Structures are given as C-alpha cells and as structure tokens.
C-alpha cells in the first residue's frame, strides 16, 4: 500500500510540475538553430528592475513585422492589450539561455550607433566622397524557389555576357563610372564607418539633415579591418576601437585606401524619411534594440542581455528586442547593441567589445 502511495504521489508531482510549466511554441524551432537551456526567471539578473514598459513598447513596434511568423502571432495580439509589462512577459514567454557549440554561455557583445556626417548635394571643395544609391546592374537572386534550404541566403552579382559574376569589390568601386550618388561627404573614413553601421544622417551646410539607410550590398564578404590592422602590426589590440582606428588613419593618411580595401564589402544607401531602421523594417530605439545573427535569434525576439558598459563599467541587465543584422554579427551568443545617434553613443559603441550572456524569451504556445 505504501509503495502504491509513493507511486501515486510521484505521478501527481510529475503532473503538477509539467502541467504548470509553460510550454514554449515549438514553431520557433523552424526559424532558429540555437542551442538553448531552459532557465528560471530568477536567473535574469535585475529583470524586475528594468524598464519593462519601454521593452513592451519596442516589442509592439517589432510585432508589426515579426508577427508574420506563426511563433509571434498570438503573442503579438496579446501585447496590444497588455497593461502590465512584467506580467505580460512572464505569462507569455519562457526564458532560454543560449550556449555555443563549445558549451560556453558567454559570447561577444559589440556596439553600433547612427553616425552624423557632413555633406553636400554636389561634389565640391572638401566634399569629394560619394554615398552611392543602389546600382542598376546589381542583381540579387533569391534562391529559395529553386533550393528551399537556402531561403535565408541571397546571391548578388552582375551580368557579364550570359553569366552572373561577382560584383565589384570596394577597391574596384573607385573606378566604376555608372553609379549615382545621393550626396558627397568630407571624409572617406567616416563614409567607411557609415557603411559599417548601415545607416546614418548627413548634415548639409545650410543645416538640412537627411537620413540615409541601407539599400543593398555588393555581395562581397565582410572582413574586419581592425583584425587585419592588428595582424599587420599597425595597431595593438587595445587600439582596435573605432577611436583608435580613426586616430591611426589621421596619422597615416597614405595607407587609408590600403586598409579600407581589406574589407571588400560595400554598402549602397537610399534616402529615407526615417532614422536608423533595422533589418526588421522598423526604426531602432536607442539602448533597446540589438543586431543579431538571425540564424540563431529570429528578428522580433525579446532578448535579455547581461553585459557591461565599457566606459563606466556599470552592468547592463535589460530586455532588448532583436531588430537588426550585420555582416560581422555571426554566431549564437553574438549581439550588436544599438546606442543611438549622439556623440556619447559613438564613443561607447566604438569601444564596446564586451563579454555577455543572452537569454531568448520564446513565446509560449497559446
């Protein structure tokens, strides 16, 4: 009788535990290949002290685009009527910690910002460096109709005869004559970093400011000039920040082209009515949006980040929303923290190269 009671009690306990535990929406597995460990809410450091109302507002903005995934549809509908942000996230999501293939839970967190460049509509005086529109001869091929397994990939190139061949490299872009500029800016280096950031603003001499956003890319692989400069002995690892690299360029102007051309990737822009806009198609919110590798973290996903500020060393424990991607943002525990468009944003983003832990909040099955 006692053994039967133990068995019955065990069954009840199992039912109680599994029955009360939220069941995450397994449709998520169709859009992510991440390694995940289910976590308790208590593991998310200072979660309850975060500005969760702001996180909810940013999540609702992302819902406009991310709800096209089945994973988000029901949760986005609930977000519209939510009045208590903390309760909304805890009732409708299950936190999972990401870990990499080496079983490490720590990854790399960098930062980016929206730069402000000085420019002119026409090429004149110091304004010599064009911000180009997307060229007419750049072909982008969506492979998904032929190879469904490659639906996340795009093939870019140009037609030569009857063949699609790779598009011009950064170095080759200098001699290309059929490109149309949006405007011209006064610094080749600042233009390069505008391409790294993916969007920015240009201020003309009459005070007018325009927004320029990502339109397309030449299909060439992104290569880090910082890593190359360290390898060549041009700078030391502790000089590899945005500020350190810019200072080296100031002191070595004759080597600017040599170094910039290491990165063959080249970004084309479009004039926009909106400020910095991520790959999700919504305007980015300073210190609440992340760029991620969408193979692991789908766009629109709430992500709780634990890292620190490189300037004041203070901890950053807050709920962000994945809304952007980047050529250098590759890997499971990898994120680029959007800081905004101020001088402080440029300073902290340029120096940010921190260790960090990421938790994905995966919607529950509703």
CATH uppermost class of the largest domain: Mainly Beta
Summing up helix and strand content along with how strands pair, one would put the structural category as alpha+beta
Percent strand equals 25-35%
As for the CATH topology of the largest domain, it is: Barwin-like endoglucanases
Shape: globular
For the secondary structure, the number of strands is 17
At CATH level 2, the architecture of the largest domain is: Beta Barrel
Pattern of helices and strands: HEHHHEEEEEEEHEHEEHHHEEEEEHE
Average per-residue pLDDT, rounded, comes to 89
Helix content: 25-40%
Please outline the major beta sheet.
6 strands, mixed, barrel
Cα radius of gyration in angstroms:
23 Å
H/I helix tally? 10
Gap between N and C termini: 40 Å
- Unreliable stretches covering 5 or more consecutive residues: 1-20
